[in-house]
Design goal:
Elements (H helix, E strand, L loop, with lengths): L20 H11 L3 E5 L5 E6 H9 L18 E3 L4 H10 L4 E5 L5 E6 H7 L1 H6 L4 H4 L2 H4 L9 H11 L3 E5 L5 E6 H9 L18 E3 L4 H10 L5 E5 L5 E6 H5 L4 H14 L9 E8 L2 E7 L1 H7 L14 H12 L7 E5 L2 E10 L3 E8 L1 H23 L3 E6 L3 E5 L1 H7 L4 H7 L21 H10 L4 E6 L6 E11 L2 E11 L1 H35 L1 E7 L4 E4 L1 H7 L9 H5 L7 H14 L3 E8 L5 E9 L9 E8 L1 H11 L9 H18 L3 E8 L2 H8 L1 H18 L5 E6 L2 E7 L3 H17 L11 E7 L6 H17 L5 E3 L4
Parallel strand pairs: 3-4, 8-9, 29-30
Antiparallel strand pairs: 1-2, 4-5, 6-7, 9-10, 11-12, 11-15, 13-14, 14-15, 16-17, 16-20, 18-19, 19-20, 21-22, 21-25, 23-24, 24-25, 26-28, 26-29, 27-28
Helix pairs in contact: 2-8, 2-9, 3-12, 25-26, 26-27
Length: about 800
Amino acid sequence: MMIIQSLIDKKIEPLGLGATLKEVHERIKESGCGAVAFIDEESRPVGILTERDISRLLFEGCGFDDLAFPLAIKELVVSQENRDLEYVLSLMTGNNIRRIVICNKAGRYSGIITQDTIFHELGEEIYKTKLRARHLINAKNLIHKITPSHSLKEALSLMVENKIGTLPMLGEGERILGMLTERKIVRMVELGVSLESPAVEFIDKNPYLVHEDSFINEIIDIFEKNSDSLCVLVIDSSRELKGIITKRDLLKNAENSYKNAIEESFRATRYALNNFPQSVLECYYLETTMLIQWANKRAFELLGSDIVDKPLSAILDQATYEHMAERIAAGLRVEPFNIEIGGNYYEVTLAKSTRRIMQLVFTDVTKHKEYEETLRKEQQVVQDILDFQSSIVLVAGSDEGVLSANRSALDFFGFRDVKEFRMHYRCICEAFIDREGFLKNRHEAWLHEALLANQTGRDSKAIIKDRHSGEERIFVVKVGRYPRDSHKFIVSLTDVTELEMSKRELEGKVMARTAELSRAMSILEEAQKIARLGNWQLYLHNAEFEYSKEITKILGIDEEDRLSIKDLMSFVHPEDKRRLMRGFIRSAKKGQNASCNIRFLNLYGQTRMTHIQIKAPDEWHEEKILFGICQDITEQIELEKIAYYDSLTQIYNRNKFNELITREIELLKRYKQPLSLVIFDIDRFKRINDTYGHRVGDEVLAELAGIVSREIRSTDIFVRWGGEEFVIVTPQTPTQGAQLLAEKIRSKIEEWKFEGVEECVTCSFGVTNILRLESIESAIERADELLYKAKNNGRNQVVMAEER
């Protein structure tokens, strides 16, 4: 195939960037080429405008005085002058253009090769073919036609929209009236003719007609003799229009080799539409070089507007280019590969490949690369975290065995990497030691067994021998499914050997302590039984009342009976209920401890005196609980009465006095508060006994004790000293206060009518204070002297010592 250098029409002069649309039109008319190129200051081609472009621009409202270069918006297809004719023909048909701008090796403008040039060069080859006109009819052009009613503007609109340069005009009965070309319309506009003018006035009324059975050589003769002719109309025997044949139609059928190349090119370009989101290149095999012959808009934006006619090796690195070329030459599949362009990453895919044509698709995978890099870094961070863990962490597959391991796992088993691990243990369970109660050495079961245990909150354990020390170590095994693959599992093994040993030791201690506690509880129950002491607790949020069995004995109920707090209150003596409730309220509301003696009326009809203590917790929790004890002190009270109370008068005896006065003397010494002593006896009591008898005398003593008890304070100490003699101790009271109390009591006794005694009963009193540093015996002796002084002074009077 010949080189195109000799075919370049160098008479077609280019224009500079400042040319107007009118200058472009004039240059096109002068050259007869149908197009003109624009060059920059260095004579490099930068754009092209064709006769059809001018038609479109005029239709869109542009004027002849407008600058032309800014209107040259189509992609410029350029070829070097050392290319062969087959390649240029492929460029022309592949990019659906009639003209190609040619430049030299330096990239400077050389000229233009047109469709006509190639037509004349291949004319002899075309002439040899035996095809008829009907074989070359371009059915697409037959669809578009005009009638006498169309204006120039309407005709031009059809041409621009459908990218055709010729329209036949048909009259009534589909009779051919003539033919209108876009070149004719442009010339009319240049002459000032309005586009609203009727198209019928400007048609060529003598178009070239050929019969559909005419051979191609007849059509070639018409084009040769009439160089201005762009097409011929094909008719049948009845002169009905069947189609249009252009020079391009002839070129597409020049020779089988050219035809095949053209058809392959068209099939490839179907996959590389300009609205593809990816960049698409179409390359042509030229001897040992792959030349870029077509690019979509995205590819021009990515690789530059001058990418066409460059070798593919200008984009790919040499190693990638050679590898791809070798595989294509060998008929092998080319796997997608990545390249970097302008800081972004693109995946290159060979979308279509034929003998001469191949198509490459560039997909921007920068974000995928960034994601992969981020994912790789995240995985490395995760691995670093896992390596930091003291636990053994593995990724295991149900079929693949161990897939990865952290540093603790490799160190424990003494392996350098997972590969060495798998050489010894395909599955981690091969390291397990069979032992009852632990995971077994079974490939098919241990993962699922451990996973099920984890899901139900149970621990799975395994025993593994330490390869360094030979010791058997106990591990807790945790298993979870891998997030992205349900057939993989994440396994962690935590060494709990020391913990297990401590646990067993602790369990032994707990068992021993439990036994001790059980014995202590038995002793406590026995002690409570002996002490008649029961414990209880009251839940304030629901009034639930719990108690020990000793309380059931106090109340006389069965141990199986369950009492509420309301039931308990029904056993309390009516006079004691308020006191017990005050104790509960003080503890519940103020958090203070309380204690009181309460009488219970049990089911046996007995009154049992109990001592109750109520303890509020130091801190309230969600469940507010009061704790307490209840001790049966009935017998204790009786014994105390015998030991500390006078059986006749039911007041303290001298034993109790000795106990209480010791405490008061200590308080006197510490706080220096006054403490007074009153001693009195009944005047002429012997005469009462002799006159009325000892029974009446005893009644007088008891009645008198009642009178005095009602007059003194609860803090005062009232004691029967012996016979008819009594003692009163008044804490925090000076002598004058004690004298007033004695006088009040004396008066009450004198006024009282004692049953069985007709005469007046009187008493004599001695009152003194108790000094801080003296003994109680000394104070009693002094008060006794004052008592006898009162008797000597006539009885029924109070004698007080001077304050000391």
